Every structure is written in C-alpha cells, then in structure tokens.
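Lab meeting, action items carried over

1. Structure of the two-component assembly. Owner: GW. Status: complete.
Input record:
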Amino acid sequence: VASAASSRARRGFGRPRTAGTMPPPTVGVAKTKSKEFYDIVRQIGECKNKSDEDVIMRREVMTLRTQMASPKLEKTKMKELLIRLMYVDMLGHDASFGYIHAVKATHESDISMKRLGYLATSAFLDEHHDLIILIVNTVQQDLKTDNYLAVCAALTTVCRLVNEETIPAVLTQVVDLLSHRKEQVRKKAVMALHRFHQRSPSSVAHLHGKFRQMLCDKDPSVMSAALCALHDLILADATPHKNLIPSFVSILKQIVEHRLHNYDYHKVPAPFIQIKLLKILAALGTADKAASTEMYSVLSTCLKRGDSGGNVGNAIVYECVRTAASIYPSPVLLEHCAAAVSRFIASSNHNLKYVGLDSLSCIVNINPKYAAEHQMTVVDCLEDADESIRGKTLDLLYRMTKSHNVEVVVEKMIEFLKTSTDKHVRESTAARIGELAERYAPTTQWFIDTMNAMFAIGGDVVKPTVAHNLMRLIGEGSGDVGADETLRRSAVNSYLKLLQTPKLPKVLLEVILWVVGEYGTLSGRSPGELQDVLCGVVETQPDGAAVTSQAMTACAKLAAASAPPALSPAATKLIELAASSRDVNKQQRSHEIVALLRESPALISAALPVDRSGEELGVDENLSFMDALVSKALAEGASPYQPVAERAPPPSAAGFAASGPEPVGALRFDAYDAPQMPARDYGAPPVRVDASRGAYDPYIPREETATAATASEPTLRRKEGTWGADTGFVSTSAPAEPPVKDEKALLADALFSGVTTSSPAAAAAPPAAADDLFGLGLAAPAPTTSVSSPLDDILSQLSVGGGPAPPAGGGVGLEGFLNAPAPPVSGGFDLLGGGAPAPTIVPQFVRQNAPAPAAPVRTDGMVMSPGMDGVSRPRGKKDPFADLLG
Amino acid sequence: RTAVRRRRTLRPGSKAFEGAKDIRDSRGRASGFGALDLGLNGRGSGRVVVERILGEMTVRFVLLVNKQGQTRLAHYNEIVPKAERRQIEGEMVRKCLTRSDKQCSIVEHRGMKVIYRRYASLFFIVGVDEHENELAVHEFIHCVVETLDRHFGNVCELDIMFHLEKAHYILEEMVMNGQIVETNKSIILGQTVMYDPPPEK
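Predicted assembly:
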C-alpha cells in the first residue's frame, strides 16, 4: 500500500500544480551553496566509521572557529558556516563557540538569514540557556514587523525557546497576532499560546476563550491548531468544555463527508485532524453518558469510512475503537469495533496485529467476551518472535487476568521477564507480576514460589514494596497456626537452599535474611547453625555493608531465640569485626547487639520476640508514660514547658527578628554568617551526653571530651525562667562568653560540623547526668500547663546532635523515628525507649527489616543507640561500651 | 559525481530498497555509540533525563539515521541534554536497525513508543508518547517523506544532507510543540520555500 501510495504521490507530483505558492520541484536541489560546503558534507556522508567522522569534525571545529570570527564575512558564507555548525552539534561535538553567531544571525534583516539563525538557535539552545535573553528582544521586534515571514519565523522560535519567565514579554504581542490577516501567522500564534499553556498553564488561563474563538477560524489549518490547544485543555479538565461537543462532532462530520478537501491524504479526508478530534471526543465522553450519546453516530460513520481507507484509514479505525472504549459504551458501536479488531488481529501485517492487540485490550475492559474468539491468536502472539508483540500480548493478558487464569498469566510474564532487555519494560512487567500475584494468588505457597522466581529473574528491577509485601505475608500469616507454620517452614527451607546460589539480587537477599532471622529455627536447624549460614552469606554475596548489617540483625534475632541467648562463634566474630567498621550503620548495630545480649534473657526476648512481627506497635503520642517524670521535675523546680511559638525570640538573633518573625519553613534569602569556631569552654558539648563513650564522634579528641564529661557540672542560670530560649542559659564554665553566638553561626555549625554545637536545651544539660536533660525536656508535656504541646516540639528540643533547634524546627519528628537509622537522630529514639514501660523497642531497622513500613508493625530493631544509652539503660550498670572502646 | 553515485531513491519498493537487506552495522558508528553509552550507564543513570513539559507531547523527537547508524537529522521537541541525545540516538540505532521486516515497526523504549520506517538506506525514527496512535505516526512518517520527496524531487540521503536546513524547516512546519499540526504539503512547502526563494534565472 505504501509503495502504491507513494507512486500516486509521484504522479501527482509530476503534474503542474495550480496552487499559487507551489514551488517548482527542482528548487530544493538547486545548487545554492558553495563547492566547499558540498565537499565537506560529502566527506561527512562518506565516513565509514565514527573515528573518521571525529577526525573530520575536529577539523571542522577548528575551521569554523577561525572563519566565523573573521570580521568581513559574506552573509551567504555565514549561512553555510551555520549549517556546518549544525552538523558539528548534531554529530556530538562541542559547537558552543558558535552559538552566539546563530543568535547574531537572527538580527539580520535578510529573511533567509534570519530564518536560519532562528533554526540554528533552536537547535543549539534550550530554553534555559543564558543566550535566550538575547533572543527575546529580537523576537519581540520581529513579532511587530510587517513581513509576515519574519513573524512566522519568530513565532516558530517562540514555540521552541520561550521559557516560563519570558512568556509575559511576548504574550500580548502573540495574542494580537491571533487576528493577523495571514492564516499562517494565526495558526502559529495559536500554537505559541498552546506552548505557553504547556509551559505554564496559569499564564494563559484567561485566554481559554481565544482558543474556542480560533476553532471557528475560516482557515482549516488554524482550526486544527486550535484543536491541539483545546485537546490539552480538555485533558486537564473536561468539564468547562463539554458544551463544545456539538462543535467537535459537527467538525468531524464535515471532515468525514469530505468538506475539507485540501487536507486529503491518500484520498482520506484530513486523517490527522480526524484522529485529533477522536481523541478529544474520547476525553470529553469518558464516564459521561449524555455526552457519549451525541458521539455514537459520527463515530460509527468514521469507523465505516475508515475501513476502506488503506493504512491511514486503519489508523482512524484504531482511534475510533479507542474512543469507543473510553466513552460510555454503546453495544452497537462496540460490535462494529470488535469486527475491526478481529480484522487487525488476524492480519499478517505486524503493525496491525500490534494495534489489534492494543485495541482488544481496550474493549476487553468493557466486555470480556470479545477476547474469547481470539484466544488462539492471542496464544500464538505470546510465542511471536517479536518482543513488541509479546509485550503487547502480556498487556492484554494483564487486563484479562482473574483468579482462574492468574497462574498461567504470571508464568507467561515471568518467561517474558527472562527474555526482555529493556529496563523500563522489565520494571513494569515485574510490578505487574507483583500486583497480579498479590491480588489473585490462589495459595500462599504459590505466591511465595512466584515471588522467588520473580526475584531470581528480575531482582534488579523489582520495587522494594513488592519485597515488603512478601515479608508481610510471611510474617502476618493467615491466622491459621498450622498452615502458617507450614508456609514459613517451606519458605525458610527454600531460602536456605537459595542461599547457596551466588550473586542473589539484593531485594531477594533482604527478604531471605529477614525470613531466616525470624523463622530460621522452623527449619529444624539450631540457631547456631543458622547463624553460621548467615555469616557465610556475608562472605559469598557481593552486596557488602547492607547485607552484613542485615545478617547481623538476623543473627541477633537467632541468638535471642536460642537458650541461653548466645551468638555462635562465627557470628560473634562478624559482630566484633563490625564494631570497628567504617560504616556507621554496621558499627551501631554491632554495639547494640553486644549491649543487648548482655541483658537479662527476659529483656532480650522482650526486645527480640519470636514471631511477633505482625503485631502492631502502639505509639503513645502524648508521651503519657513520662508524666511521672514530668511532675517530679516540676516538683523539683523545673519550669514548665512552653511551646516554641510562645517563647520570646532569642535576643541574640535580634537583628534577624527585627525583620519580623521568620515564617516556619520559609526559605532564607540572606546569607548565613561565616561559621565560627565553637568556643571550647562551653562546658561539655551536650550533644555528647555520653561523650566519654563516644564511639561516634570523630571530631572531638577523646581526651577533651573525657575531661568535659568529668568536669564540674555547669550550673544553669535561667534569666527569664523560660526553657528553650537561648538567652536564659549561661554556662558557668564560660562566663565571659557572650551567651550564645549568633544564631546563624550556630545553624551553620550545626549544618556543617554537626557535633561541636549545642542545642540550647542540651547546652544546659550537665553532661554526665542525663536525667537533668530529661528533667528539662520533660517539662514539656507538663499536665498543668500545655498538655497538648506537640511531640515535635519536644523532640526538636531534645534531639541531640541536631544542633540548636532553629525557629523553623530542626528537630526530629516522628518520621525521623520510624525510618532514620543514622546515629545522630537516635537521640530522639531513646526518649521513647527510656521511659517506655514496655521493653525498649527502637524502630531502628524498620526500613530494611520490618515488613511493610507503611503498616505499623512490631519494630524489631535494637534497643539502644550508643549515643544515648546512658538514658535508657537501667542506671548503675556498667557501661557496656567502656570495654569495647577501651 | 559522488552525489550522483550515492543517489538512491528512498522509495519503498525501489531496487535500492529491495537490495538493502543487510542493515546490521558491522563496525563503526554503532559501536562508537555503544562505548559512549556504556560510559553513561556507568554513572548509574539508566534513565533519560528529559524535562517533560506539561500537557500532551505527541512527537518527542524525529530522527533520521542511515543504515550505518549515522545520524542524518535530529529534531527534538523537548529539552534533551546533548549527552542524552547521543545516548538516545545510539540506542535507537541498536534497537531499530537490528529488527527484521517480519517484526512490527513499533518498539517500546524507556516508557515511550518508538515508531520507525525504512526508506532505502534511511531510517525515519519517531519517538512518541506511550498512548499515541502508532498507526497514525507510521503514516505521518510517510507523509514527511512524501513532502520531502515533493520538495527535492526523488529525495535521497544526500539531498537531506546538502539541505539540512530545508528538512528542518519542513519538520518545524509539520510538528509544533510536539503536535502534528500541518499535513497539507502545499502549505508546508509554500512556507518553506518563501524563506529561500529560488535564484533568479
């Protein structure tokens, strides 16, 4: 058909045309350029490989650089040089030296030079380039000229280069051009407005009426441009445009009836406009019965006419099917569509088969019966040699999946995943497998097997949520104890077997480590044995730190499950090694595990209970468990908590505060002060309440912190009795020091060093006695004053290591709790842990270990973060880290 | 003279088209792109960093590549950094040029659809949105070729190379803001030619 069509075009071309603007056919090939130009282009064309081309292009760059810079250059010559520069740019060499010449060419009065200048500029630059600003002025002038060609060239450039900021500079001029006498200008002005809408819908929000007006333009090309713009508007919000349906239907009808004859393409009337209109109708008729009814008749006419329209007719039919499928369904219309779909699917033309599959999946959504007659074809397509067709078939199957066929469909999808290479396709296939398996899984065993297969094949593209769902399924079980145990046992066994495979994908490994840690003992092996297996995994799997830390946690769980709680020798070695790791996460876990395993078995089993991952963890947001402490602190003279908002602004930031209170979360546009060295004699940096054991502080020499910790406790002078404001505190050990340095400096310190500054609250805390810190902090929810004070406020004050809480709240919110493994944040955790009546459970590892972070489940992390363990540990115990750190 | 020798018509069904079975690139450009591509992937960015603009963008790029995998014309309708352009072009060459006649001319690539059509030694490759009408784009390519053909008269690869700017003008007329706006050949060519009036005889 294509060749027949083109020979038709050939004949048509041979006849003299009557159209006034029609160029003589040989114009394009007339030799209008210099021999040098033809030679160089020919050389490029004759390159056999990339390196030849590179040689030529490098030489070109040299030549162009010198020639373009020469002062007396003929205009025709400059044109050629610009085209050569476009080659340089297109073939991947740096042409930036010549961009400015392209911009200059746009200033020329010669129209052909100007047009080329605009073309080259839009090829070289994007709308964020610095030179755009130079173009805007030229464009403004050209939009004003009488020469409509210059106006068109400028409008074309507007469509390609105007960015959000420059829209206002040209907007009014473009709007004026909507009533230009030349239809080409009007068309391009509409497109320019369309472009503004794409860039920044608000800039043309007041001009929607103009688009409707242009739809009625007497010139069809302006009308079709308006259709583009209206289509976008309708996609964004169809409701205000519903009243245009009759207009669209009537335009489509007129086109189908061949009233727009100069847009024929292979004897089909204006096919591209028809398709555009069909898309618009689809958007307008979605879920709107009344609107859809208006369209049925024109759609079926379209469908009928399209059937005999050759290739482009098929495109129209295909679009009709998609429209019919997305509007309110009409059974009659759908029958016609089904017939067309059958024709497509049965076709030997691969493109038609492809769109046939696509349109079938559209109508199958409405009525599954249409798929029945194509069963065999679809099955054949699954085996097709073409990946595109196979992928499309799976799309279709995905939409047809129900619980009865899920096993087959998923099996096919996994096969496809094996052969597919495109990352995007693999990702979406993996996501679909996960979705279908979750929704329709006949048995849990099947689900786990499927997931294992998928992880093994597509582990690189599986989303972590899929893995979390799998873990949750295993963890929560079905409620039937016996069945759950069988399921878990089989999962553990299959995972233990899988562990012998080298190079498992990371997601799968994560699942395996968690499952073995939780349910490993169901396999009948002893916890010690399992720990050895896990330690072996660290050796054999390549993923490094993440795997090691997960294996460590799993070992800890297994150790807790054995009686008496103990690590196997291999696990002990692994964990000891991690204590000196450079990876903070590993280090922290190691310390935590060691510390926990020293506790009484009761505490251990409470912290790491067996099979309780499905339980919800209640979070007491009011911190009511701290009430006792609060009232005790109040009784001892602590001042009640004041919410941040009620506190007096710190005078040290007076200059800043003079300009009004800083809106929370607002951006600051003034510069921060240069960071200053924090004063040495602040007293102990309160960040490091337990500085003497500070495994996490690489910045402050041990010696100094040790002294700080043992130094005489700085007492506090509270000037106004308000807690939390910077001013009130002067550490006695630094009496000469201005109370608190400039707030900005502190913030800068906090941002850039993190450790050396102190939050006001913490600054006041005597380093060794963490209770005082608590005493202060716990003034917070004092029942007498402000019980409702938000948790975040307290936390922002107490978040040790967060630096001074800036007015905007630099503390750690609840979110920080749930998924921040980083040690500095952990100060916040112990708040809960310390006072919690329940075993101290800190959601440290939620991110990797707990199933589905979204669902609050038991958080099976470790108890303490070393940064604060003094707080949460029962007092009087020997410091667990003292010997570790010497 | 070389021009004449290399002049082969792009018409499907022509002798050149029949004979041009060997489309696999043995050396040269494709492998060059491959090396570049690996380098880019090594950075860990498999994703195209393309700034999508709001609204419907149908035609995202039009690419003309010869069967050696050399880019002959690249027309992007959205902001694509230069390095990404090279990468896309390399991937297109590897994906499209290796397909046989028995396969459909639609490829899914990085979340967009790529539709290509071969005319003698030249591949016309168009990247469109995922939900675009593939058949329409396929026909649109033919419409572009017909327009070029009418302008140049029996268009060939070298015509496009010698008159790169004309080919761009034509495409700019036909596609604006990623939308197919004009398919009337007289209007397209009328506009194009006005900027470079034929030399007075």
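2. GW to write a short summary for the group page. Key points so far: The helical segments of chain B are 2-6, 15-19, 29-42, 82-96, 134-152, 157-162, 164-174, 185-195. Confidence is low (pLDDT under 50) at residues 1-54 of chain B.
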